[in-house]
Amino acid sequence: xxxxxxxxxxxxxxxxxxxxxxxxxxxxxxxxxxxxxxxxxxxxxxxxxxxxxxxxxxxxxxxxxxxxxxxxxxxxxxxxxxxxxxxxxxxxxxxxxxxxxxxxxxxxxxxxxxxxxxxxxxxxxxxxxxxxxxxxxxxxxxxxxxxxxxxxxxxxxxxxxxxxxxxxxxxxxxxxxxxxxxxxxxxxxxxxxxxxxxxxxxxxxxxxxxxxxxxxxxxxxxxxxxxxxxxxxxxxxxxxxxxxxxxxxxxxxxxxxxxxxxxxxxxxxxxxxxxxxxxxxxxxxxxxxxxxxxxxxxxxxxxxxxxxxxxxxxxxxxxxxxxxxxxxxxxxxxxxxxxxxxxxxxxxxxxxxxxxxxxxxxxxxxxxxxxxxxxxxxxxxxxxxxxxxxxxxxxxxxxxxxxxxxxxxxxxxxxxxxxxxxxxxxxxxxxxxxxxxxxxxxxxxxxxxxxxxxxxxxxxxxxxxxxxxxxxxxxxxxxxxxxxxxxxxxxxxxxxxxxxxxxxxxxxxxxxxxxxxxxxxxxxxxxxxxxxxxxxxxxxxxxxxxxxxxxxxxxxxxxxxxxxxxxxx
Length: 569
Ligand SMILES: Nc1ncnc2c1ncn2[C@@H]1O[C@H](COP(=O)(O)OP(=O)(O)OP(=O)(O)O)[C@@H](O)[C@H]1O
What we know:
Rossmann fold, single chain, alpha/beta, six-stranded parallel sheet, binds adenosine-5'-triphosphate
């Protein structure tokens, strides 16, 4: 790959530098090149490469295949969560409490962590709360779109009840050494507030790293910025790249993050304005969606593609699979090249014609059957299968016999004589040995589970609490597969940092309280507008914008007003 002068300046910079760039500008490629070239070398210290997306991490790891030493100590390639857990929270927690903490990405992977209060018909995930050491606040924006209305409509005393219970459970887990990314950040804040400890941690990091490269810096939370500040203060060189318009994780923080205050401490490199990824029409749509005044120029291999942006209006999401297939074929693209994306995973799934991965059932037999079904379904994508494996693991833990059910994961593994790996393997063995659940009655599936005596002995679980759903039939939503597709699909957040030859961006019905289309048409900044911007900018040659009929005319007028070439599907 021949790097541009602006990219080379980033790859070779000798002092702490921040570079802003448009989508597809080759930020990932450039920082990985820098990580490999390492212009600032040190005989003993390493370089860290931190990213919020797996795209940069995978790319860096792939590039290290020919030079495996680059991946090894003292270097680091991984997420900011991994960095915080490994170098800051893990060692400090161990030193203070003499327990090595278990880290989870989110509470959804932690058994028995749901928040339930008698008399309230709303089972909440701890992930939907912002929790500090002495308060919990339910954030309706974090609740999946399908349940958000219920969250908004909770009465004050119901909300307070849930928040009190959330805080109680959270404290219990954290005290026993079970930490998620958000809980680790709460711990981190308190560690760094202690000046002596801060000094020790800063010196340890400076002894280990000569430089830390940060991708997608716009997605840093308040606590992430504290870490970058610490590194900078103790003399670690910081190279940061980002695109402020791609900031789509503000909902994680309870306070606005002032990343700019930190970035002002770095030298500013030349903005990367050339978009190597997308065609001219897609770049024009991305420019229209961007709230700032910068304009990116198509300069990559799609610069000759003169495909307009395809506009499609829909009423029912269920009709979208057929409409999208037709629109893709009409433009002479293959369905295999199409990625259907939406803000909500459920919207993307339905628009792609993929079978249901969720049901609102809290029946553990139904949950196990669904997870097992997804693990064995070749049409599911990797993320769905990993989520299903986690659900199965979690359910096995929740079915634990009395003396293990309430243990934290590391104590549980110790009692059973297992490692994380052997535990996962044993759960997968259950899945491999089970017959297809939806070909039989729930009671037969339950009877089959009762025969897994060896597994029950090894993993200390019991099938006793499992009950067949009413009428001994599975919920319809799990068994009625669609006749088309499914097309490949993803949330916009999960596709961040990646690209696809053709993208169908699904825009849902307008919401009275405001939405991305409203922000875009009113010319104001907003997270939902940025989510649309990130989505559209994943497309290389073909962008289909499928907008619900309630917002379609606004989308069409905005694009046409901004001079974006469009065609109706
Ligand atoms: N100098 C270059 N020459 C040719 N292709 C390039 C160059 N730099 C980047 N690319 C290509 O452009 C595409 C986008 O690159 P990359 O993913 O690094 O961009 P990015 O800035 O990280 O994008 P985003 O922030 O939108 O995820 C990739 O296909 C990459 O291979």
